[in-house]
Amino acid sequence: MKLRSLVTFTLASTLIAAPVAAEVSLAPFAGYRMSSSVDIRTAGASTSDQIDFRDTPSQGLIFNFDLPDPGKQGELYFGRQTTSARLDNGLFAPGEDSINLTIYQLQFGGLYFPGGQNHGGFVSGVLGVTRLEPDDSRYETHHRAALSIGGGYQFFLTEQLRLRLDLRGVYTALNSRGSAFCSGGCELRFDSSGYLQVEAAAGLAIRF
Fold first, then answer.
1. Whole-angstrom Cα distance, residue 134 to residue 82?
2. pLDDT value for 15
3. Contact 85, 51 (CB under 8 A)
4. How many CA atoms lie within 13 A of 178 on its CB side?
5. Which residues, other chains included, contact 24 with Cβ-Cβ below 8 Å and sequence gap of 6+?
6. Sign of the torsion formed by the C-alpha atoms of 85, 88, 90 and 96
7. At 204, is the pLDDT very low, low, confident or very high (cuts 50, 70, 90)?
8. φ, ψ dihedrals at 47, nearest 5°
9. What is the pLDDT of residue 21?
């Protein structure tokens, strides 16, 4: 519920901050994410393992507004992925080698069309936060800084519609002081500087 309120507030603030004369667009999208592994260890460093996130579909919403310079837009990105995290040696809890979780990203940045238009090839870069939310309340939820860099192409359909194709890399920062998913008093720690996800997505951008 808190995340939903944050998304609503951020989107409303962005709409207010956008130049009054600028056109805006909303692009619901569906995609697929592939993830790297994350190294973890116990507090005493006696046992180590890797968390493997399952590759699964993703979905979300991208909001853009035109900036005064031709071909430049502000961008607000919200993405969601339902997946599972797996450990080979069952460090989560006795008898458990995987947990289900939802990964959210909320990020803000910009998009640039080198041709100076509002369609065609583009590059984008956004900064924000990743939320790792296990379905089981026994496990901890984590919030970490994140960066996304990508590119794609927007096909002109009509003045109000674009077919948007994206390929982006989403890097979430971790640190060895941060705890990993934990239950029943265990002391797992991230032992990695971060992990990378690659997302391929398609959406329909509606301009207003």
1. 10
2. 47
3. yes
4. 20
5. 15, 18, 63, 64, 65, 66, 207, 208
6. positive
7. very high
8. -135, 135
9. 42
